[in-house]
Amino acid sequence: MVKRICCLLFLLNFFFTPAAAGQKVLALQSVAIAPYEEAVRGFEQVYGSEVKRLFVSEQKEKDVLREIQAIKPDMVLAVGRDALLIARRLRDIPVVYCMVLNPLALLAAETNISGVSMNLAPGKQLPELLKILPDTHDIALLYDPARTGAFVQELREAAALAGVRLNAMEVHQPQEVPRRLNNIRDRADLFWMLPDVTVIAPETVEAILLFSLENKIPILTFSEKYLERGAMLSIGIDPFDIGRQAGELAQMIFSGGEHLQHGEARKALVAVNEKIARKLGIRIEGKLLRNGGADR
Amino acid sequence: MKPTLLHLFRRKFGHKIIAVGILLIFFISLAFTIFFYRSQRDSLTDALIKNNLLLVDILAYNSRLGVFSENAELLRNPVDGIFQQMETAEVAIYNAERRLLTKRSRPGAEPDPASGAAAGIASWIWDKLRADVAPFYLETKGKMDFWSPVMANAGYRAAKSLFVEESPPRQASPLGFVRITISKSTLNKQLIALLVKSALICLLFSIAGAGIIYFTIKRIVNPLYTLMAGVQSLGTGDLGKKVTVETEDEIGRLALAFNQMSESLLRRETEKRQLEERLRHAQRIEAIGTLAGGIAHDFNNIIGVILGYAQMALLAKPEKEGMDRCLKEIFQASLRAKDLVKQILTFSRQEVPERNPLLIKPVVEDALKMVRELLPTNVTMRHGLKSGLGRVVSNPTQIHQVLMNLCSNAGFAMQDKGGVLDVMLDEMNIEPTSPPSAADIPPGRYQVLTVHDTGQGMEPAIKERIFDPFFTTKGPDRGTGMGLSVVHGIVKSHDGHVKCESVPGKGTTFMVFFPATTEAKKQNT
After folding, report:
1. CB-nearest partner of A228 from B69, B96, B153
2. pLDDT by residue (tens digit) across A158-215?
3. Are the beta carbons of B65 and A210 separated by less than 8 Å?
4. Neighbours of B491 (CB within 10 A)
5. What is the interface size between A and B, counted as CB pairs within 8 Å?
6. Measured between CB atoms, does B69 come within 8 Å of chain A?
7. How far is residue B367's CA from residue B60's CA, in Å, rounded to a whole number?
8. Both A178 and A291 in a single domain?
9. Fewest 10 Å CB contacts: which of A87, B6, B89, B331?
10. Chain A residue with the nearest C-alpha to that of B73
11. Between A215, A216, A229, which is nearest B65 by CB?
């Protein structure tokens, strides 16, 4: 009985919490990890108040849906891939997603679902790279056409515009990675590590990092996690800014304005591992480090 | 004085051999043990060094990424792998600037205060690590440090290169350095266990070898001791002493030879004693004969004077009554004395009658006729005289005299209980290899006259003196004691021999050996 009363009081408190737009938003989070938390905080900054959080990893899908039905939010913010997979089953509630890589592969033609993907357009990444490493002329990468073919095509176009040669080799299985690395060894000033699970399997990451070490070829990666393991440079998304993008999208939905249904991350976050750069004999100007990237 | 151990060794051949054998076995075992221990120690140490050189090389290889990124998390697994080896006490990894990236020590291992700090490591080690790709090791008291540089590209193209290539080509300066420190305590424990095991093996070999040597030598020297006791016994005069022959080897044959020698010595000693006894007896007889012969000549002259005067006195017909009877008694006594002197002269061989080659058989046959008359009636006489025998240089009277004396004594020996008298004549060839019974008779051809009776026989003490002059067992007035002395004198004068065998209660045998001759009968005889 006491539990029911407490729950009722909690719900009353939730609905009577003043929001900036007066709308109730429920944040459905895949898991409680720092990037997702940052994204939610970015969203809250635009939204104007804290939002209720529901974690997918803590309960079953049915319970999650039942709880969403009970809460009856005006909008669901799906943070992460698992959250989006559940939220796409909601037909009568607007859903805004963020922190999802290649979200269109998960969606059909739902009209109530909008959002900002984790994808960072090559056109945004390449200029950042060339600012840090202006002498880069040959970029090598491995990719699975089925997974990152579209991205590579965009990158190829961007590289052509920037006057950089792109040596992109296809791989269809992780086992092909070491052999392909050996093939591109003599034709690369930099190796671009894509978020492609065919290429970045647990057993291939070490081979790629050793490839860099043995051949003194710096690695551009998409996650700061790999900087700690030997990559020199990372250009990734800014979760907080993605959250802000999602917040802005939510505001436009609530206000009924025109908006882009599926957007991409607009800000590139650059980080450099200076120790690795030093070991590879690459000198980076301190000004660039201060303005463009974070020193690790 | 109590015998010392050294004294025992000096006196006992077996002890010397056993001591030498045991020492030999001990030194061989010791040498083998030392060789075994040293080879095992070197093998263990080499294996440990090779194993850890390989491990430090593998650690350097697996640490490349971790050293390159200076990420301690990436170094965790390679370091954990090294700690699977029990000897590993500490693992430390440094970057190219000698800064410690990670260090892990085995719990319980004695921490080395200077091991983690790069400053505590001699600069020549860093120089060597920078100059050479190959791993190396440094040995200090209680521990060994294995070093290897971490190369970006170690030059290995395949995993197997780690095992077959000694010195990969140098490509660039190292990313960092790895060090594995192993405690020598485990190795030392293994070496101590090995030493104990080796010592036990040595002891076992020595004991087993000593046991085998002891029993083998004892088996060899025991017969020698027995032989030695036999020789000592022989040396003290215990002739005929025999030792047990246990084996058929050289020692067994030696024991057999000893036994034969002992038997031979006993036989010779017996023969020597017999010869000495005979010599002594012969010398005694000879001395008596010489004495008696010398006296007999003078007696013979004196008796000749008595006989002559007695005869002249009888011829003069004495007037006094009874004087004639006295003179006759003197005359008869003198005749008996003359006969006795004659026998003494015969015994002492002072009187040598003429001798010619003659056939004994007719003389014996003639004499036996008279013997038959002399023998008691309860005595049966038999004779076996071989025909066709050769001749003997002799005098018929003397042959007659010999036979009569021997048969007379035989008849006397059988007069109470009767018996058989055998008289035989045969020829015998005495060879140098003839039986001991004929050992004192020179080799040659003899005609043997044997007189055997089944009378009362003689005790050895009596037999010893039968040829002595005037020795008789017949009692007063029944014999002169000169019969066998005369026989002895006659036979010796023929260069012959008399042998007497007598068994008390069984009888006596006399064998008279006359040298046979090849001379023919003289024409004038």
Report:
1. B69
2. 999 999 999 999 999 999 998 999 888 888 999 999 988 899 988 888 889 888 888 8
3. yes
4. 20
5. 35
6. yes
7. 137
8. yes
9. B6
10. A229
11. A229
Does residue B185 lie within any of the structural domains?
yes
* Interface TM-score (ipTM) > 0.85: no
What's the distance, CA A51 to chain centroid?
21
Query: Would you state the structure tokens that stand for residue A83, as one six-digit string?
Result: 């959250």
We report the CATH number of the domain holding residue A46 as 3.40.50.2300
Q: Please tell me the predicted confidence (pLDDT) of residue A155.
A: 93
A76: Cα within 13 Å, side-chain hemisphere: 31
Number of domains making up chain A: 2
| CA-based nearest residue to A25, from A116, A87, A104, A108 | A87
pLDDT tens profile B192-226 = 898 898 888 888 888 888 888 888 888 887 888 88
Q: Exposed/middle/buried for B188, CB within 10 Å: 0-12, 13-18, 19+?
A: exposed
Out of B71, B96, B152, closest to residue A229 by CB: B71
Task: Count up the domains in chain B and report the number.
Answer: 3
Instruction: Mutate one of A181, A214, A272, A278 to test the B interface: name it (highest B CB count within 10 A).
Output: A214
Token pair recorded at residue B40: 């095992």
Domain that holds residue B366: 354-517
User: B298 and B377: one domain?
Assistant: no
Sign for the pseudo-dihedral over CA of A174, A179, A181, A187? negative
Q: Are residues A46 and A89 in the same domain?
A: yes
Residues of B in contact with A279 (CB under 8 A): 68, 96, 175
Residues A97-115 pLDDT 10s: 999 988 988 888 888 999 9
Q: Residue B368 CB: number of other CB atoms within 10 A?
A: 18
Domain termination site, one of B138, B164, B189: B189
- Which residue, B328, B351, B374, sits at the end of a domain? B351
Same domain, yes or no: B386 and B310 = no
Under 8 Å between Cβ of A51 and A26: yes
**Are residues B165 and B31 part of one domain?**
yes
Judgement on whether residues A198 and A290 belong to the same structural domain of the protein: yes
